[in-house]
Design goal:
Blueprint (H helix, E strand, L loop, with lengths): L1 E2 L4 H14 L5 E2 L5 H16 L5 H10 L37 H10 L4 H17 L2 H7 L3 H8 L5 H18 L7 H11 L5 H14 L5 H7 L1 H14 L2 H4 L7 H25 L2 H4 L3 H8 L2 H5 L6 H17 L8 H10 L6 H17 L9 H14 L6 H4 L3 H5 L9 H14 L4 H5 L1 H21 L4 H21 L5 H17 L8 H21 L14 H10 L36 H14 L3 H6 L8 H11 L11 H16 L7 H14 L6 H15 L5 H21 L2 H20 L3 H7 L11 H20 L6 H21 L6 H26 L9 H14 L2 H31 L12 H17 L18 H22 L2 H11 L4 H11 L2 H4 L7 H8 L12 H18 L1 H8 L4 H30 L6 E6 L4 E8 L2 E8 L10 E4 L10 H13 L4 H17 L21 E2 L6 E2 L1 H11 L12
Parallel strand pairs: 1-2
Antiparallel strand pairs: 3-4, 4-5, 5-6, 7-8
Length: 1249
């Protein structure tokens, strides 16, 4: 706007008008005198000082005395407002400002402020007012709305822009068709706001636009306002800059640039949408504006703009123009193609995708595009760079466009052989790019595009046989080799695509249209054997595929059964609860469209030639023979998942296995270790395929037969381990019937070897003339297996035994007594125990058979066998049977005692695991045994009362004595397990024992306890003290009397008090007062002194060198005094044991407090609880007290449930914290709180935890 000012009065009038009407862009073209300029500044300063200082002050003035409406005086703060055709400045002469509703005046004034929050709230009020105000008031405000809307729709604050669109939607909805007369003023901003970079603002604009115009009228509305829209876009794209678009001084350069970029993106996207929606004949009506935009250098410079959204929007516009209005670029053809080709190797994936889309449209729509650019200097270098880089991390977008681009190659005036060679060479280099290998979609795009381009290139050049064969040799075969030898990720996709390509050539080789296909297939079968030979001669470091197959076998499998390359359409299906759920194995869909018998015959011929080396492997016995090459090929042929069919058919598999097994069975010499390892690997692979399981079983039988031969120690161990692995595998795969049949065949093999040898070698296997402890484990195992074999034969097929074998069995049994006599001196040896048990089982089997034979004669048995058994053998054996049972009990006791550390260690690992269950503890295995024998003992002692004047005395060498001894020995083992465990594990053991087992043990102890202990003797005899204070010694050579049983009973009670005092106290609380007093007296007289002495001595020894703590022990007073010192703070603690410890309550007292320290009641309470109600020792309690104090001084909070730092059983610090009050709790304390309170709230703040 240009205004000429001639005098001072006119200038003042104009200035006043400019302040009222927000006219910012005025220019003085006549130079004014300096006095005029000074007066102008004074006038503007005076005008400014009269304005309110803030929004609240302005509202106050408006509320007290309503002035005339100031129009757009403050819109200058909103920045540049586009001037559209038909939108002129409102003046007081044109519109009666005072007729606008006062509420709208206040809100519009707020919209004019600089503050974004003020404008945002004003727009919200405006939207509400549009709904609630009278329609006439809303229509009266309409003339002023377009200017505000155009300014606010491009505001720097995204909230304001969104609110402006919502307010505009509310206004349009209210006035309806009344907006028509202002539509052209709003069209530019309204149309482009639908592409605002802030999605909520864009969505609001789209919704308001679509709700205003029905779908069938949207295009007509755009056409109606297209001149205004295009002028708006043209001004923003090629006229304005960041400075002219935002003229308010409050914005920084960065904010102005950001606003400009946002507006530019929205306008370019709107321009793109315009070409997609408006018909071509309507576009022709605005050619002048389009030519103005497309001929501007500023428009084309946007292709190199730094902002990615602008570049993306630019290429979208270019693509849309070429697709819908190509003739607009008729004069800009060279600039268009050059711009696109210059950007082919963009590094940004977002830009690259739109550039290649533009390139595809350009090569399709512009016929002579290759003539307006230099192919060699511009296009091809960019293309080669993109291919070498794997599509610049955007292969899934770039590579699908390569095939249309390859179709343009014949147009180029370039040597085709070199062109295709360079193209595929660069494409193969892109295979190794990291972005291609790490993404499945990228891999699929690259491999598919490579094969498609190769297939198309050969198809259009089928007459050029030399070129086609060259492409096969130089491009396809190197890709196959790379897939076989290199660890590239795309081998699976490559193999599938290559298989389809080869099958396609083979199927169409006889078609006259494709002359080169015959030569291609001939060359393929020439190159493939060379490739395999090269692969087999390579080093061992070739990486297999993910499922364990060698790559070359995987390729052959693909050639044999062509996989389907179509993607599955996955659907979600919810199962009916009544339907049974079945899990099916995944299957590979095989395409059967290539029914090519010629190709199948060629492939079969090739495969059969690879496996002719089986006989060479089987016939070679030289240890120096190199098995690697041929064995690897055979093994790899079976390294295939079960869902895929094997390369070799059933007959071929059976032939290979038969040759290998027959070669082993026919050898008398020592077999090769490499050969054994080879057939073991082969067997392992064959288990994976249903149709080769029978062959695997055949190999397993051969290995078992090898185990029965004589070998050196190393070979024997290797063969045995190989057989064991296969045997375990067979037990999991074979059905019960098949597995039992396999076991029978094993038995036939063993029996055939045993039955055909003389009995004397078997008899010589049992050597009892020297000490069994010195016998090696190998010889002992042989003796045990021979005895167990005879036991099994006697039980199942005694009629098959010859007389000489019966003689051996009877000789074995006569030596049983000799073995027992020799074993008395070394009864704790596990070897002797195992041998005694084996002989006992053999004796039981023969005795059972003789009883049956006596009742019903078995004709197949030797006629003199029964008489010999009754008159000679049995009488000698019966004499030592009773002693043998006790020996067996003691042997089992020592065997279990030997295993206790391992059992406890296993439970320690289990209790610390995440999936811990108490039912898996080893002590549970004793529960059933104890329950069964406990029932017998309870029945035996049911007539006796606890601590009665008459106690039960059990005579030796009776069934009662045997049962009682076994019961007590079992409990001795259980208590030994408790002794070896830590406190947390011992707590788990106690939970298992305390209800059904431990109370009955104490009942039976005080029914079996010696009478002397129950009598009120003031003088304790040494003999009685020894019963309670010394551990019993189990010696076989000593006589077993009732006194030895008494010793075990008394010692068990002492161990119960030492290890599980809590359970004893719980039991004591359930008995009557008479029994309780007696038990208390016995404990005080015989047990407590020793336990107190042990506790005090152990505590002094363990705590002697503990840091920050000194311990003093007063044995006479049964007192432990501990002093904790940290810097200048000292704490003293006294623990006094009761006379009947551990039945009585332990007294815990605080000593002298130094330096004014507060009382530590929580620590003392926890310590007292540990010593009284837990199975804790004094040493455990003092250590816990010290750790609590250490953590206290270190600042660790205590648990607000138990008020202790360390949990009394797990010794863990509080870890679980409430999210509200931040108080910490032990895990077990919190779990107990939840379970007992039936709530899931915090114990302190009562909020949900």
């Amino acid at each position: 706007m240009k205004i000429i000012v001639s005098d001072l009065r006119t200038m003042m009038i104009f200035v006043r008008y400019a302040l009222d009407q927000s006219v910012k862009n005025f220019y003085f073209i006549q130079e004014l005198p300096h006095v005029f300029e000074d007066n102008l500044k004074k006038l503007m300063l005076c005008r400014t000082h009269n304005l309110p200082s803030n929004s609240s002050r302005s509202a106050e003035l408006l509320g007290t005395a309503m002035p005339n409406f100031v129009g757009f005086s403050a819109v200058k703060d909103g920045g540049y407002v586009p001037v559209l055709p038909g939108l002129s400045l409102c003046s007081l002469n044109e519109v009666e400002m005072n007729n606008i509703d006062s509420n709208f005046q206040v809100i519009l004034k707020k919209m004019s402020k600089k503050d974004a929050t003020t404008k945002f709230k004003a727009l919200q009020e405006f939207a509400t007012l549009c709904q609630d105000a009278e329609l006439s008031a809303v229509e009266g405000m309409l003339p002023f709305w377009p200017r505000f809307y155009c300014a606010l729709s491009i505001d720097i604050d995204h909230r304001v822009r969104e609110a402006a669109q919502l307010a505009h939607a509310a206004l349009v909805k209210r006035v309806g068709k009344g907006i028509a007369m202002y539509l052209k003023q709003l069209a530019g901003a309204w149309f482009t706001s639908q592409y605002d970079t802030y999605p909520p603002a864009a969505s609001a604009a789209i919704n308001s636009f679509n709700s205003t115009f029905p779908p069938w009228k949207i295009v007509n509305a755009i056409i109606h306002c297209q001149c205004e829209i295009l002028l708006y876009i043209s001004n923003n794209v090629i006229v304005h800059t960041a400075q002219t678009l935002s003229t308010q001084k409050s914005l920084t350069n960065e904010e102005m640039e950001a606003k400009y970029e946002r507006v530019l993106v929205a306008n370019l996207q709107g321009y793109n949408c315009y070409f997609k929606k408006v018909p071509l004949d309507e576009i022709d009506k605005t050619l002048e504006i389009h030519n103005k935009i497309l001929s501007s250098s500023r428009f084309w410079k946007l292709a190199k703009h730094d902002a990615l959204p602008i570049k993306t929007a630019f290429f979208n516009v270019l693509t849309s123009i070429m697709e819908n209005a190509g003739k607009l670029l008729e004069n800009e053809k060279k600039r268009t193609v050059t711009t696109i080709m210059n950007s082919l190797d963009e590094s940004e994936p977002v830009i690259l995708s739109v550039v290649w889309e533009s390139m595809l449209i350009a090569t399709t729509k512009i016929d002579d595009w290759h003539l307006v650019v230099n192919i060699n200097k511009l296009v091809l270098p960019k293309l080669w760079h993109t291919l070498r880089s794997g599509g610049q991390c955007c292969a899934s977008t770039v590579y699908p466009n390569l095939l249309p681009f390859v179709s343009q190659f014949p147009k180029f005036n370039i040597d085709l052989t070199n062109l295709y060679t360079n193209f595929f060479n660069n494409m193969r280099q892109g295979f190794s790019v990291k972005s291609v290998q790490m993404s499945r979609s990228e891999t699929l795009a690259v491999t598919t595009s490579f094969i498609e381009c190769l297939r198309y290139s050969i198809l259009i050049n089928t007459e050029n046989v030399d070129l086609c064969v060259r492409l096969l040799k130089e491009q396809l075969m190197p890709v196959i080799e790379a897939c076989m030898t290199d660890s590239i990720f795309m081998k699976q996709c490559c193999f599938i695509e290559i298989t389809h390509l080869i099958r396609y050539w083979s199927k169409n080789r006889n078609n006259e249209k494709y002359k080169s296909y015959i030569s291609l297939m001939e060359q393929f079968w020439i190159e493939l054997p060379l490739l395999f030979e090269k692969y087999m001669n390579m080093s061992k470091g070739i990486v297999c595929t993910a499922d364990g197959k060698d790559s070359h076998i995987e390729f052959l499998l693909n050639l044999k059964d062509v996989p389907d390359r179509t993607r599955k359409k996955l659907k979600v299906k919810f199962s009916d609860p009544s339907d049974s759920v079945t899990v099916s194995e995944p299957k590979v869909k095989v395409v059967d469209v290539y029914a090519d018998t010629v190709f199948n015959a060629e492939l079969c011929k090739f495969v059969n030639g690879l496996f002719d080396m089986t006989k060479e492997i089987a016939s070679c016995s030289d240890e120096q023979y190199d098995f690697e090459k041929n064995q690897k090929l055979i093994l790899s042929a079976f390294e295939i998942p079960e869902i895929r069919s094997l390369l070799i058919n059933n007959e071929g598999t059976s032939e290979i296995v038969s040759i290998l097994c027959d070669s082993l069975n026919g050898r008398d010499d020592t077999c090769s270790m490499q050969f054994v390892a080879f057939i073991t690997k082969l067997m392992t692979l064959m288990w994976k395929h249903n149709r080769t399981i029978s062959s695997a079983v055949q190999i397993l039988e051969t290995l078992f037969e090898l185990c029965t031969r004589e070998h050196d120690a190393l070979t024997a161990d290797t063969i045995r381990n190989c057989w064991k692995e296969g045997f375990v595998e067979s037990s999991q795969i074979l059905s019960i019937f098949e597995f039992n049949d396999l076991i029978k065949r094993y038995g036939i093999i063993i029996w055939s070897k045993v039955y055909n040898i003389h009995a004397s070698p078997i008899k010589n296997t049992l050597v009892l003339d020297h000490d069994i402890s010195d016998t090696s484990w190998d010889k002992l195992f042989l003796q045990l297996e021979v005895i167990r074999l005879f036991e099994t034969v006697v039980q199942h097929i005694p009629q098959k035994l010859k007389q000489e074998y019966w003689d051996v069995i009877l000789i074995f049994l006569t030596k049983w007594q000799q073995l027992y006599n020799n074993a008395k001196h070394n009864y704790s040896d596990i070897k002797i125990t195992m041998l005694i048990i084996a002989f006992s089982q053999l004796y039981y089997a023969v005795e059972t058979l003789m009883n049956k034979h006596k009742l019903k004669p078995i004709p197949e048995l030797p006629s003199t066998l029964l008489d010999e058994w009754k008159n000679v053998i049995a009488s000698n054996i019966y004499n030592g049977i009773v002693q043998t049972w006790i020996f067996i009990q003691l042997g089992a006791y020592y065997a279990l005692k030997y295993m206790v550390p391992e059992l406890v260690q296993h439970d320690k690992v289990l209790v610390e695991s995440d999936n811990f269950e108490s039912s898996n503890l080893n002590i549970k295995k004793f529960e059933e045994v104890l329950s069964n024998i406990q029932t017998i003992i309870n029945t035996m002692l049911m007539e006796f009362k606890l601590c009665d004047t008459v106690t039960c005395t059990i005579q030796p060498f009776t069934d009662s004595y045997t049962y009682t001894l076994g019961y007590l020995l079992t409990w001795a083992i259980v208590l030994d397990i408790c002794e070896k465990s830590h406190s947390d594990l011992r707590y788990q053991y106690a939970e298992i024992l305390k209800i059904k087992l431990f109370p009955y043990l104490l009942d039976n102890i005080f029914k079996l306890i010696p009478m002397e202990a129950l009598q009120d003797n003031k003088n304790k005899t040494v003999k009685l003290l020894e019963l309670f204070t010394t551990a019993p010694v189990f010696r076989f050579k000593e006589s077993w009397t009732e006194e030895r049983l008494d010793h075990i009973v008394c010692w068990l009670y002492t161990n119960c008090l030492r290890l599980l005092p809590v359970l004893v106290r719980q039991w004591l609380s359930t008995v009557d007062s008479r029994v309780s007093a007696t038990v208390d007296k016995i404990t005080s007289h015989y047990v407590s002194p020793m336990l107190c002495e042990d506790e005090l001595l152990y505590s002094r020894l363990q705590l002697a060198n503990v840091e920050n703590m000194q311990v003093k022990v007063h044995s006479t007073a049964r007192e432990v005094v501990a002093m904790y010192q940290m810097e200048d703070t000292k704490l003293e603690l006294s623990i006094v044991l009761p006379p009947n410890y551990p039945l009585g309550r332990v007294k815990v007292e605080s000593g002298q407090q130094v330096d004014g320290m507060a009382k530590w009641k929580n620590c003392h309470m926890q310590l007292s609880k540990l010593l009284t109600h837990q199975n804790g020792s004094v040493w455990d309690g003092l250590l816990m007290w010290k750790r609590n104090l250490d953590k206290k001084f270190a600042g660790v909070e205590e648990c607000y449930i138990c008020f202790s730092i360390f949990h009394i059983s797990t010794y863990q610090v509080p870890k679980l914290s409430c999210h509200t009050c931040r108080k910490k709790f032990h895990t077990r304390c919190l779990y107990k709180w939840f379970s007992t309170s039936q709530k899931s709230t915090c114990p302190i703040c009562r909020n949900v935890f």
